[in-house]
Amino acid sequence: ERMKVKLDDLVKLIHTWLRVLMVDVSKIRETFAPAAVTTVVQKALENVAPHAVRMDVEIRTEIDPAVGSVMGDEGTLVEALANIVGNAVKYSSPGSDVLVRARREGDAIEIAVVDHGIGIAEADLPYVFEDFFRAAPGQAAAEGSGLGLSITRRIVEAHDGSVAVESQPGRGVH
């Protein structure tokens, strides 16, 4: 039984590595169409909702009605946002909440995810969107491959966007 679990974990890791290699910017751009931001947020939250329920973390939203649409690939945008919200849930304490905010800032659209989790050490902040990055031992007990946020960065950059993080240990991510 332990061997089966280990093999399943290895297969998941291989699939994640393949996903990293498959994030082809030119192919993503070929599928661009108007994507409603509210729909992207809704679908991402639907993907993360079961995990949030298991973790006893409430996901709240503040979506500006004027946020509108972006030219992009809806599926990969949903994946990128689900990765970020999923991490926020994963590193939050039971009984806490995660806020997903979407608003228009001039010609740009800003989607912010705010949590009250364990936070990220200042020394780690420049690396959180790099391939295989994992926080220093002892900072986080959650498992993962260290690839989800690097996939997110690639997707966001394929949409001519940017992704950033602000955090302090014990204060969560903003």
Instruction: Quickly give the structural class.
Output: alpha+beta
Weakly predicted, low-confidence segments: none
Strand content: 15-25%
Order of helices and strands: HHEHEEHEEHEE
Number of H/I helices: 5
Helix content: 40-55%
Oligomer: single chain
List the helices and strands and how they pair.
Layout: H1 2-22, H2 25-30, E1 33-36, H3 37-55, E2 58-63, E3 69-72, H4 74-90, E4 97-105, E5 108-115, H5 148-158, E6 167-168, E7 172-173
Parallel strand pairs: 2-4
Antiparallel strand pairs: 1-3, 4-5, 6-7
Helix pairs in contact: 3-4, 4-5
Give a quick summary of the entry.
This protein is α+β, with helices and mostly antiparallel strands and 174 residues long. Helices cover 43% and strands 20% of the residues.
List keywords for this structure.
5 helices, two-stranded antiparallel sheet, alpha+beta, 7 strands, 174 residues, globular
Protein architecture, described:
The protein is built from five helices and seven strands; from the N terminus they run H-H-E-H-E-E-H-E-E-H-E-E. It has helices spanning 2-22, 25-30, 37-55, 74-90, 148-158; strands spanning 33-36, 58-63, 69-72, 97-105, 108-115, 167-168, 172-173. Strand 4 (97-105) and strand 5 form a beta hairpin. The model has no long low-confidence stretch (mean pLDDT 83).
